[in-house]
Structures are given as C-alpha cells and as structure tokens.
Amino acid sequence: MLTHLGTKTIETERLILRRFEYSDIDSMIRNWIADEQTQWDYGEPSYETPEAVRELFEKKYVVSYSRDDYYRWAVIEKKSKECIGQIAYFSVDTENQHGEIEYVIGPSFHGKGYATEMTKAVIAFGFDKINFNRIEIDCRTENEASRRVIEKCGLIYEGVFRDFFWRKDHFEGRRVYSVLKNEWKKEN
Fold this sequence. Notes:
The structure is a single chain. This protein is α+β, with helices and mostly antiparallel strands. It has a domain at 10-134: 3-Layer(aba) Sandwich (Aminopeptidase). 34% of the residues lie in helices and 33% in strands. It has helices at 25-33, 36-42, 50-59, 61-64, 114-130, 144-152, 181-187, and strands at 10-11, 15-18, 71-77, 83-93, 98-105, 134-140, 156-167, 170-180. Strand 5, helix 5 and strand 6 (134-140) form a beta-alpha-beta unit. The longest helix is centred in the middle third of the chain and has 17 residues, at 114-130. It is globular. Pfam families: Acetyltransf_3. Keywords: Transferase.
C-alpha cells in the first residue's frame, strides 16, 4: 500500500528539491523553461514570459500541490539559489504501486552530475516514503545523456517501445528502464 505524502522537500549535497514557488519564475526562464531546445528534448513547450510560467503554475503545478498524490519538485542549486530544473513523479499508479519519473535540467548545468543526484534522491523518496514497488524512467532513443543518467541511477533496461513519439518529421522510440524496491535496497 502506498503512503501518499505530497511533494516534500528533499535535500542532497548540492541541491534542494522543493515545491515550486512564484519566486522561481525568473530563474526558471533564465535557466531552462524558456529554452526551446531544452523543452523540446523534455517533450514540453517553452514558456518565455513570466505570465506564461505563472499560468502554468496556476493551471498545473502549484494548484496541484493540494493533492497528496502529486509529486513535482523545483530543483534548486544550493550555491546559486537558482531553479535549474525540475523532477516529478508525473505518473503515479496507486493500485499497482509504481511511479514514473520525468526530469529536465538547464543546459548550463549539464555534465555536473546534478541530474543523477536529484534522480537518486527522488527514487529513494519513492521507495522509502511513498512505498513504491516499482519506479520507471523512460527516455527517447536518441537521448543519450538521459540514458546515461538513468543507468547511473541503477535502473534496468527493459526494452524499446518502437515509433512511440512523433518528433516533427519522424518517429522515435522510447527506451524503458525500471528498478524494483528490493533491487534498490540491495544496491543502496
């Protein structure tokens, strides 16, 4: 049985994962959410104005924090206090006790291990606090950087959903990875 807690603050060595706040809007625009390529890779539209981000908050992010089964974190770099990305359990299946993670991080923060650090923290939260049995992360077959992050986090490759995403002018596959609670506990 899952224990839904809602989005709680998680602290790692270099990051604070917490609920989005309206004060994050400027650094979100500066660091990632207005970047068309970053958002394209993430599979979401870019948001270029404070008004557009505020509307996203009011229709989706902040308004959903009232639900105890909603898990979406702003990723704050401790050193700069900037919002450098986000991570979420965007899909939660209470009956079958699993969640699926999605994440994005600004291009200036790539290659520093932040994506691995935040993902491991959210996986640990999912198993230790929510009590998931299975956690999944998928990525486009062309997204090698995400594949490396997922593998560094110890997820096991399950296969490819062929021609899963339509990307402007071609189909792209979706790589599927997962880790089970008993596997995670052995390794961590």
